């Protein structure tokens, strides 16, 4: 699986995992890749708690608003941001930078998990103080994400808004044509047009077909 396929699979949400355990070497690879991410001031604020014990997973599931997937997953990775390091370097702005950088690490874990044919969800809704208590986190270590990881047995695919409908040229609201490279070596390009232009092209194509049909009849 190439990186583009792994990213595309992020739109898949895991509903259930099967009983197969996840190899510790694969978990290690996920964490290694996460630490390759760039960070503000090279602070590298991320820290990871790997949770495999059923008793801990059960508590985490309760703290995560009773989301069953947290308990059912063979392993949960709780990704945290070390705010003490960020504030020491950047004062109040460090809060934003810490969350941004740690979220980037979360994204890499998810892409890497897909590349290994693992399933992963990003659980965002949880009682932050509850998670800190369960995991014994110090005050300045802030949990940003709970990532249930395993081999998926049931999934659903979420729809995505076409990127050409939410992309603008130079300023908000100014449409422009975009092109994306095809998978074939990115040697060819597929032109993506705004919806209005697509409708114009459709009408022109329809008019052309009707005109040709009329000529054929004559």
Give a written overview of the molecule.
By secondary structure, this protein is of the alpha+beta class. It has two domains: 3-157, NADH Oxidase (3-Layer(aba) Sandwich), CATH 3.40.109; 163-217, no CATH class. The protein has helices at 3-8, 24-34, 54-63, 68-72, 83-90, 93-115, 128-135, 195-217, and strands spanning 12-17, 46-51, 75-82, 119-120, 141-150, 152-157, 178-181, 189-192. The strands form three sheets. Strands 2-3-5-4 form a four-stranded antiparallel β-sheet. Strand 7 and strand 8 form a beta hairpin. The longest helix has 23 residues, at 93-115. It is extended and about 85 Å long. 26% of the residues are buried. Residues 184-193 have low confidence and may be disordered.
Q: What order do the helices and strands follow?
A: HEHEHHEHHEHEEEEH
Task: Name the CATH class of the largest domain.
Answer: Alpha Beta
| Rg estimate, integer Å | 23 Å
Helix/sheet category: alpha+beta
Strand order of the largest sheet: 2-3-5-4
The quaternary organization reads as single chain
How many domains is the backbone divided into?
2
Q: Alpha-carbon distance between the termini?
A: 54 Å
| Main sheet properties | 4 strands, antiparallel
Question: What is the CATH topology classification name of the largest domain?
Answer: NADH Oxidase
Number of strands: 8
Overall spatial form: extended
């Amino acid at each position: 699986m190439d990186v583009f396929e792994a990213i595309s699979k992020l739109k898949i949400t895991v509903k259930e995992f099967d009983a197969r355990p996840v190899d510790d070497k694969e978990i290690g690879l996920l964490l290694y890749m996460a630490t390759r991410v760039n960070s503000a001031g090279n602070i590298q604020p991320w820290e990871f708690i790997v949770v495999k014990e059923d008793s801990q997973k059960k508590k985490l599931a309760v703290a995560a608003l009773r989301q069953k997937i947290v308990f059912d997953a063979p392993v949960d990775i709780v990704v945290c941001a070390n705010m003490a390091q960020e504030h020491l370097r950047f004062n109040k702005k460090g809060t934003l930078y810490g969350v941004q950088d740690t979220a980037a690490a979360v994204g890499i874990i998810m892409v890497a998990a897909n590349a290994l044919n693992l399933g992963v969800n990003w659980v965002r809704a949880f009682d932050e103080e509850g998670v800190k208590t369960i995991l014994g986190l110090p005050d300045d270590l802030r949990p940003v994400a709970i990532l249930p990881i395993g081999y998926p047995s049931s999934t659903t695919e979420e729809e995505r808004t076409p990127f050409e409908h939410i992309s603008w040229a130079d300023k908000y609201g100014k449409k422009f044509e975009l092109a994306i490279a095809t998978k074939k070596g990115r040697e060819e390009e597929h032109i993506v047009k705004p919806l209005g232009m697509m409708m114009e092209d459709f009408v022109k194509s329809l008019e052309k077909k009707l005109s040709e049909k009329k000529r054929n009849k004559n």
